[in-house]
Amino acid sequence: MKKTLSLFIATIMILNPLALSFADTGERIIEARDFNFEYNDQMFKISHILRVTEGNLISTSEALPRSTEEAHELFEEACAPRSLTRDMNKKLTVSYQGLYKISSFECERALENDETGTVQFVVTTDREDKLKDLQINELRSQAKAESIDPHKLTMKDAAEVAVAVAASTLVSGLLAKQIYAGEQDKFLHATAGSLIAAAATLFSYYGLKVSKNQAALIGFATAVAVALLKEYAYDARHTEAHTVDIRDAEATALGGGVGTFFIRLQFRW
Predict the structure, then answer these.
(1) Torsion over CA of 42, 48, 53 and 59, rounded to 10 degrees?
(2) Would the N or C end of the chain have less CB density within 10 A of its end CB?
(3) Segment holding 91, helix H or strand E
(4) Contact indicator for 164, 266 with CB cutoff of 8 Å
(5) 67-104 tens-digit pLDDT
């Protein structure tokens, strides 16, 4: 009896994972966003699989890769969440068929003549993440790309920016009054730092067309640089009217951090 019961339990333990694998056939769609760690993890895993796999591919189009090496390059170009393709649509659909996992990436990329196209990678892997099948399809758009330029400042964006700048300036001033109670000049330094960081962040994103995070970093760095230069380059040379005070630089940097944060929120994550 004990042997029969043990055999029954062992059989259930073996078949249960298989049953779950066969039952889990639903699709999950993962949209790529700036901080979508799930998409990034899946993308890097497939990128590694393509990079270490060798072999030729059967292709019906000259525009598609002929080897896994070329497939890896195209996958990195179109589907990696880098600054050049950050604002283009990327979508991952994950499904299961028995013991196999099917990852379908659909990633937009720029083509010639101002067109955009969607390249699709259908990657089938086993439970050990070994490549079993790879299909690559490219869907070229029929019309010229008319997608919204994320670096173009619209009237709606301008209104939201104005609100963000006003809010960051107010919050910077209130923080300065709390932290540096009774020191009016720290209030001025904090609000000035907020405005400097906001202006530098907006110019970097809409003017220099860098990524959102890069623009925020430039904005904060600008506020810190101005704070230090004001104290150690300007005030140090005009001691008759000014004194070098590192707390002034701290207050300016504080405002810069607040201004950068509010503008980055306006950019959306």
Answers:
(1) 50
(2) N
(3) strand 90-97
(4) yes
(5) 888 888 889 888 887 766 777 888 899 999 888 999 99
